[in-house]
Amino acid sequence: MEEKLQNCSLFKGMGLSEIEAVLQEYPHKLTRFREKDFVFLQNDPCNKLMILVEGLLQAQMVDSSGRQIIIDELHENDLLAPAFIFPDINRSPVSLYVLREAVVLNFTRSVLLDMMQENQLILSNFLTVISNRSRFLSEKLMFHVFKSLRVKIIHYLLDEYRVEKSTHLKLRYTQQELADRFGVARPSLARAFSELEKEGFVEMSNKSVFLKDMQALKVALE
Description:
By secondary structure, this protein is of the alpha+beta class. Helices cover about 45% and strands about 25% of the residues.
C-alpha cells in the first residue's frame, strides 16, 4: 500500500520510508466496498480523511426534484471530499457510488490534525488538494449553471477528441449516463444530439460519433 500512496497528492514529495513512518505512527483503518455499494451518501457527515487506495468511484448529486447529476469520477489515490472535513456544517454534498470494488484508507479528523501539525509537507499538500478541489467545483458549477446543453455536448465531444486524437469517437457513456452528467433528461439530450446532426456538425451511429466539422464545433463555443 505504501508504494501506491507515493502517487497520492497528500504525500507528494515524500519518500517510501517517510510514508511507511506515517502509517506506523498514526492510527488508520482500511475499509473495503463491493461494486454498487455506497462509500457514503449525500448529507452524511464528513468526519474523517478518506483516500481511495484501490477501485473506482462516482460522485453523484440528487436535487430536491430527484434529478441526478454525475459530478465526477474518483480514481486510485484521490482524497474523498477533503474540503468538507472541517467546515461548521461538515456534511457531504454528494454520494459516492462504487463502480469498481474499492479499498479506502481512513484517518480520523483528530489524527489528520496531528499529522498536519507535526508535518508541514502534509499540511501544505492538504491545503493544495482542497484549493484545487474548490477550483474544480467552482468550474463545474459555472459549467452546469451558465452553459446551454448544446455547449455542454460540444465541450464534451471536443474533450473526447483531444483524448482519442480522432474525429471518430466511440462514446464511453450511454445516453442516460451522459444525461446524468449534464443534469438533464435523456430525451432532451437526444434532441440536442439530433439537432447537431441535422446542422451537419456530427454524424451519429449507435455509440459512436463522427465529428464532421471541427471548425464549426470550435466556433460554436465562442
